[in-house]
Amino acid sequence: MKFLLSSKPSIHRRLLPEISYYRKLEEAGRKPDYVAGHSLGEYNALLAAECFDFETGLKLVKKRGELMAQAPEGRMAAILNATKADVTAILRDNALHNIDVANYNTPQQIVISGRADEIERAQAFFQQGNMMYHPLNTSGAFHSRLMKPSSEQFKRFLEGFTFSPLAIPVIANVTARAYRNEAVVDTLAAQLADSVLWCDSIQYLMAHDNDGEEMTFEEIGHGEVLTKMLRHIPKDTGLVIDDRAENESRPAPAARVQQALDNRAPPAVNEIVSAWNAKYPIGTKVRCTLHDYDELETRTEAIVLFGHRAAIYMKGYNGYFDLNEVVPTRA
Amino acid sequence: MRKPIVFMFSGQGSQYFQMGRELYDHHPRFRLWMDHCDALVKDATGRSLTATLYGGSDWTDRFDDILLTNPALLSIEFCLAKLLQEAGISPDYLLGYSLGELASSVVAGVLSLEEGIRLAVEFAQLLTMKSPAGGMLAILGDEGMIDDHPDAFTRCSISGRNFDTNFVVSGLAEEITKLQTYLTGFGFGIVTQRLAVNFAFHSPVIEPLKPFFLQMSGSFNYSPPRTPMISAQKGQEIAGVDETHLWDVIRQPVDFKSTIRKLASQQDCIFIDIGPSGTLSTAVKYLLPKNTSSIFLATLNQFGQDRATLEKTISCLSGSTD
Question: Malonyl-CoA:ACP transacylase (MAT) domain: which residues (chain B) (predicted)?
Answer without folding.
Answer: 8-302
